[in-house]
Amino acid sequence: MAQGQELFLSLGELRAEVELRDAEWRAAHLTTLRAVTTLAEHINYNSMITVTDEELGVSAELDVDYWSEGELSSIRAEADRLAARVSAEADPPTLAELRGISERSVVLNDRLSDAVAAARARQWASQIRVNMAEMVVDLLEPITGYTWDGDATFAGDDQRGAFYSKLKHPDQSEIVVEIAPDEDGKSCVIHVMSYETGEPDESQRVTRVKAITDSLREQGLTGTSAAEADNADPAFKDFTRIRQRPAVRAVPERA
Fold first, then answer.
1. Model-level pTM greater than 0.90?
2. Do 153 and 226 belong to one domain?
3. Helix, strand or coil for residue 18?
4. What whole-number distance in Å separates Cα of residue 253 and Cα of residue 76?
5. For the chain, how far is it from start to end, CA to CA, in angstroms?
6. DSSP structural state of residue 234
7. Where among 83, 102, 124 does a domain terminate?
8. Domain C-terminal end among 86, 101, 124
9. How far, in Å, CA of 132 to CA of 164, rounded?
10. Burial class (CB within 10 angstroms; exposed 0-12, middle 13-18, buried 19+) of 179
């Protein structure tokens, strides 16, 4: 009788412990399920966002995955794997796994916020490259005698890439202006490539780069650099080719 009573008490304790752990697991599972569900909702909500140009009063849809260069897809893929693990019935996750998934969901949510911010910055920088190319062309025309030939394009017809604009001289000399994104895609680097039919005019090259640099400084664009490329690659004259595929960035030999 004593042994039976002791066994009964032990079983009661075991049952209480099992019920406690089951309740703890269920609570953690519910919390984690909410976390991965909320994350999925945030991903879907932020896949396309509206951006507005306050000055022009126009709005447009921004594809976050495109402008984040696939970061949103990477986040979505991992979020889907986490959600599938939480919902696994044949081999349910352990309590430790559930806690780890909840923590990872927070990290992914932060990554999502960063991806959205980067997408906004890169889309804005893309528009800045177009505006800056126009500014450089307007600046070069009166001091060089060249005129814009009406041709401009993004490399590979991809707005995330470098933007090119071309000026021509009556003697058939050409200048190609490349406004390229920097490494993180949020700022610009200006390369001026000259293709003279006669002897290169070094003094004029120095003058126009200085004019561009001074103009950038006056507008507060201290993070943007300008340089003239020595021995410019003739491939950059072919805008049809540049449109068809991303061009290798022009790297000037001197600043």
1. no
2. yes
3. helix
4. 42
5. 96
6. G
7. 124
8. 124
9. 11
10. buried
